[in-house]
Amino acid sequence: MSYPGYPPSGYPGFPGYPPTGQESAYPPAGQYPYPAVPGAFPPMGGGAYPGAPPSSGFPGVAGYPAPGGYPAPGGYPGAPQPGGMPSYPGVPTGPGFGVPTAGSGFGGYPQPPVQSYGGGGPAQIPGTDEKAIVDVVAHRSSDQRQKIKAAFKTMYGKGAGTQERVLIEILCTRTNQEIRDIVRCYKTEFGRDIEKDIRADTSGHFERLLVSMCQGNRDENQNVDYQKAQEDAQRLYQAGEGKLGTDESCFNMVLATRSFPQLKATAEVYAKIANRDLLSSIDREFSGNVERGLKAILQCALNRPAFFAERLYHSMKGAGTDDSTLIRIIVTRSEIDLMQIKQMFTQLYQKTLATMIASDTSGDYRRLLLAIVGQ
User: What Pfam families does the record tag this protein with (predicted)?
Assistant: First the structure.
């Protein structure tokens, strides 16, 4: 896969994504409270019902029997009167169903679909207002979407096993702070140390690369040291193309510690020394997951939007769809550089990202992705 402008001859400026004037229109995370989800079965934070009061963290969800027994028929407070707002088909009337709840959060939306994503997306079921769900999720920040996703998974179950390509995509492309946050959340969520799990599930040079990445200690100085770029380029040449065999630890040291602008400068010098671009040399000297990991780091240094555009394309190319990758990239990059990813996608594949999503998905799943991506 070639990247626009490679071998080095002028890359999109880095950092600087997104450019001034193209910042996300999403509100900052936390600005709007997480919307109540009336009618969830069972309600988050609550137990089985009837008889169990809702959690105090979800205001506005009514419809539970009062202590001491059920009220008389028609005695639920707040029930719509004749001539009022129509009820959703198959959904009981009462507070939380078609009647906005009190408070600053969103309210009145019916329950989320209980089907997981797959094929053409979640199946429609009676009582589900898919348009309302799309409107809510598409206009939330990435942080808020993660909370919605966690709540959905808690209630209905959904997940997949660990994949090496996912580890590469996340650990080899994130900032130091993002990686540290991931390590901390991993410990909080699972009670486990991510480095120990990586050591247990991987091996060899790939293990060492991922362990280096999860430290979150990459140099993030945006100033380029051209003397160091010259030295690193020469060091990489001597560790690979310039000798019989490969000194993998040298590639790990340079690509795992240097800043992305510094690596870009090193790649430019390397092309002159080796008469071959650094990506091609990595192709020749490595294989398997360690090759993919090193290339992911270098591709992000050269053209980060192109890296994610390529990942999106291959998640939809051919038979079937890698829904996990498609969702993850669109959601996590939506407030960072999705605009640049869309532009690079069109440049690389002569079709828009929205067009390919529309042809590869269907139903509410399609509508939700397109609402986030934009046309």
Answer: Annexin
